[in-house]
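Example 3.2
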Amino acid sequence: MADYKPTSPGELDKLINLVATTKVGDGMGGFTETDTTVASNIWAAIWPVSGKEQIQNMQNVGTITHRIRLRYRSVLRSSWRVKYGDRYFAIVSPPIDPNEGHEFLDLLCKESV
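Structure, written as tokens:
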């Protein structure tokens, strides 16, 4: 992240949605979890950062980490997820405001495959 470079609007070329998991009553005194779109059609840039593969429960599990940059928004929770197409990215750290300029936010995310 130390190699911050400004982003031109043309580099924000992916449309993403921000998704929150919410609990909804199931009508029988319990709850079920459901995904709720908090914000949709946000322009962003997505860069792969690293990847690793490991064995869990006798299966290969791959984890790919990404950096996602979007325009600054004052309300963004690290408990939310990013949806890009059919892919989901879990935000694994608090949003980073490069140079504290309130122009962009960088999200460090993890995608499980």
